[in-house]
Design brief:
Shape: globular
Low-confidence stretches: none
Number of strands: 6
Number of helices: 7
Structural class: alpha+beta
Strand content: 15-25%
Largest sheet: 4 strands, mixed
Distance between the termini: 30 Å
Helix content: 40-55%
Number of domains: 1
Radius of gyration: 18 Å
Mean pLDDT: 85
Length: 168
């Protein structure tokens, strides 16, 4: 709604909280940019960490174009390719192979990189991730982005985030 209607936090708008629980990687990063631009909305975000990893196979040459586009839309940049993958040394072979890249990012690195991206987008930064597991497998990361850059607002948000995530 914010992105589609060009809402740029009119003067009459007071502070608010947005809860985003996208299905898989259906969230477009431009939505987060629009929320951040309001400078009045904090945002709770569920991120399907396993969805990110499922769309980014271990071998970069095996990424389907549709998956790469989905990751770029979801993460807001194609920089994820440099962050998640590293070039591997070519082995001697009778057949010339194209250089390949292998996944170097595990779920923790992915979650931390998303925290960094969110912190760059929102003036007050981002808290998290709080990771939720199923049978020792990380499924979701929970974040809180803060639009107010004041130390007092960040301290209050941190206390609130720690309180609600401690109970889970």
């Amino acid at each position: 709604i914010i992105r589609e209607h060009g809402l740029d936090a009119p003067e009459t708008m007071s502070r608010g909280i947005v809860f985003l629980d996208p299905f898989g990687l259906e969230l477009d990063w431009r939505t987060l940019e629009a929320i951040a631009r309001t400078k009045k909305l904090d945002c709770f975000i569920w991120v399907a960490i396993m969805g990110v990893l499922r769309n980014a196979p271990r071998d970069a040459s095996k990424i389907k174009d549709t998956n790469a586009k989905a990751l770029t839309r979801f993460l807001g940049t194609s920089e994820w390719q440099n962050e998640f993958y590293s070039a591997t040394e070519r082995q001697m072979s009778l057949f010339p192979d194209a250089p390949s890249s292998k996944m170097r990012a595990n779920w923790e690195r992915v979650a931390q990189w998303i925290t960094k991206r969110l912190s760059q987008e929102f003036a007050g930064g981002a808290l998290g991730p709080k990771i939720f597991y199923h049978r020792n497998t990380p499924l979701f990361a929970f974040y809180l982005t803060i639009s107010n850059p004041s130390e007092r607002a960040k301290k209050l948000a941190r206390r609130f985030f720690e309180t609600i995530t401690r109970r889970t």
